[in-house]
Amino acid sequence: MSEAQFQNRKAAKIEGGFDALVIGATADAFAAAALMARAGLHVVLIETGERAQDKKEIAPGYYAIPGDPIAFALDQAVVDGLDLYRCGLSFAARRLETFVRFGDGATLTTTGDPELIEEAVAALCEADAGAFSAFLAQERKTARALTDWFSGGAAPAAPGREMLAASIDDVLSGRFADRRLTDYLRAEASLGAPARASEPYSYLSLLRRLSGEIAGLQGGVAAIAGGGRGLANALRRAAQTAGVSIRQTDRVKSVIVEWDKVAGVSFDDGGQLRAPIIVSALGARETFIDFVGRARLDIEFARILDFASPPIGSCRAHLALSGPLGDPLVGADLSRRFLLALAAQPLESGFLAARRGEVRPGVAELVFPSSLDAALAPHGCLTATILLHPVPYFSPDDEPRRAQIEQLARDALRAIAPEMSAGVVAVDIEAPVRAAPTTYEAIERRRLITDASGLEGYYFCGPEALIGAGVSLSAGRRAAERALRYFRTGGAS
Amino acid sequence: MSGPAKIDLLVVGGGLPGLAAVCCAARRGALAALAPTGFETPDEGSVCEPPSQLWRLLELHQYGFKFDSPPRHVSLFEGDAIATGEDMMRDGRALSRRDAALEHLWPAYSKDMARALEKRDGNFERLISANALLDDYFDDEALKTHLLSAYVAPFGLCGDEPGSAEALFAAGAPRRRSIDAATFGRALSKAGEAAGAEIMTARLQSLERIENRRWLARFESGREIRARTVMASSAAAVEPFGLRVATDGSALARRKGVSARVRLSFEKKPKAAAEWKRAVFHVAGDREAVRIARDAMIDGALAEAPPVAFEIDGKGITAQAYFCPSRLIENGEAREWTGQDRQVLGRAVAGVIEKRLGVKVEVSDVRVGPDIEAGLERRNFSIPAITAPAPSTDPVNAAAMLAWDLTGGDGGA
Question: Is residue A329 part of a domain?
Answer without folding.
Answer: no
